[in-house]
Write a structure and sequence with these properties.
Layout (H helix, E strand, L loop, with lengths): L1 H25 L11 E3 L1 E2 L2 E17 L2 E5 L5 E6 L6 E2 L4 E5 L2 H37 L4 H33 L2 E3 L4 E6 L6 E2 L4 E7 L3 E8 L11 E6 L4 E9 L9 E7 L12 E17 L4 E3 L2 E7 L5 E12 L2 E6 L7 E2 L12 E3 L16
């Protein structure tokens, strides 16, 4: 009997306990819906016009480089008037060579010219007399011919002597080494006291002080680049420069499969110098793109993801492909629908399937007042 009573009470307790549990589940104190893990704002992808650009690397180089050499042979440098970095104008004297021997040779050539001129004058007088006497019958035709030939030879000697004077003047002028164009001296080999030969390099000039950017692009990108396209680049010195495409190389390097794009830069390049490395972007125009806020894109394990909010406030992790950036927005090239509700920020703290609370985006804060000017 005692055992029967225990079994009866156990059954009653089981029934009432189960009912109590059921009542507790229905009293609203135990949650039946998961709590939101994060409060977020959502954004809808937008279609907009973004600039198309090609990123490239390359070196800064002289637009054109002029080599200034000695034209006279075997002369000693007596004076050097410029150094590396100096700006020169066309015709400026860069160096002076010893000219004593050339002046003496010029004087000798001028004496020879004077002598030839006197002989020519005498030969002309003889020819004039021969013509007169021949008309009077005192000179034969052979004698007249000899007088005219002597006159012609004297005139030829004058012309030869005059040419020698001109040559000596040219050689004398070559003792002053002049700049062939305006520019900046980029190299100097001239040293006072050294004897130079004809063709010896003395200076190098960056013509007009202009430098250019020689960007390397792939063969697939050549056809997209147009002459005159704007370019923005940053030199290794930190200098930001604006330029324009001057020319696209007509051939591709057989080893690297890259081609050069020549970009003209302004005359004043600040701290940028020829030989520096630079990175830049070549503009190709505008095109339509689907964009989201950059903060909406989360990078995990080398892949890009965005989180979209569904009907039950649950988020879904979606893998996307990204492209260009413009300000605070980034292009999504694939993986996202145009009408999706994207978590605008805070995606790094979410996981697939989390429940979130969606709130309206806060109004833009007023810009701070500008400081008063004195």
């Amino acid at each position: 009997m005692k055992k029967c009573g225990v079994w009866v009470w156990a059954g009653i307790w089981a029934l009432t306990g189960a009912a109590g549990v059921a009542w507790a589940a229905d009293d609203g104190k135990s949650p039946s819906v998961a709590k939101p893990s994060l409060t977020v704002t959502v954004a809808t992808p937008q279609m907009g016009s973004l600039a198309q650009k090609i990123s490239a690397n390359g070196n800064l180089a002289a637009w054109q480089e002029a080599i200034v050499g000695a034209e006279a042979n075997g002369l000693k440098i007596t004076e050097v008037r410029v150094n590396v970095g100096d700006r020169v104008q066309r015709g400026d004297v860069l160096a002076v060579l010893q000219a004593d021997s050339l002046r003496a040779e010029l004087a000798q050539a001028e004496g020879t010219l004077a002598e030839a001129a006197a002989s020519a004058q005498e030969a002309k007088a003889q020819a004039d007399r021969a013509r007169s006497l021949q008309q009077q019958g005192f000179f034969s035709a052979a004698q007249l011919s000899q007088a005219l030939a002597a006159e012609a030879s004297a005139v030829a000697r004058v012309q030869s002597a005059r040419a020698m004077v001109q040559l000596q003047n040219v050689r004398l002028s070559q003792t002053q080494v002049r700049a062939p164009d305006a520019g900046v001296v980029s190299a100097r080999q001239a040293t006072v006291g050294s004897v130079v030969g004809a063709g010896t390099e003395l200076f190098r000039l960056i013509r007009q002080g202009r430098i250019e950017w020689r960007a390397e692009v792939t063969a697939a990108e050549i056809g997209r680049i147009q002459v005159g396209a704007p370019v923005e680049l940053k030199a290794a010195s930190g200098q930001l420069l604006q330029g324009k495409v001057r020319m696209v190389a007509p051939s591709v390097d057989a080893q690297t499969r890259n081609a050069l794009v020549y970009v003209d830069l302004p005359a004043q390049t600040g701290s940028a110098r020829a030989g520096m490395y630079a990175q830049g972007e070549i503009a190709l125009g505008q095109s339509q793109a689907l964009t989201v806020p950059q903060a909406a894109v989360v990078v995990r394990d080398g892949f890009s993801y965005v989180y979209t909010v569904g009907a039950e406030q649950k988020v879904s992790q979606i893998k996307v492909q990204t492209g260009r950036r413009s300000g605070e927005r980034i292009e999504v090239t694939s993986g996202l629908k145009a009408d999706a509700r994207v978590v605008a920020s805070g995606g790094a703290f979410l996981n697939h399937g989390d429940t979130v609370r969606v709130v309206d985006a806060p109004a833009a804060q007023a810009a701070p007042a500008a400081p008063a000017t004195k």
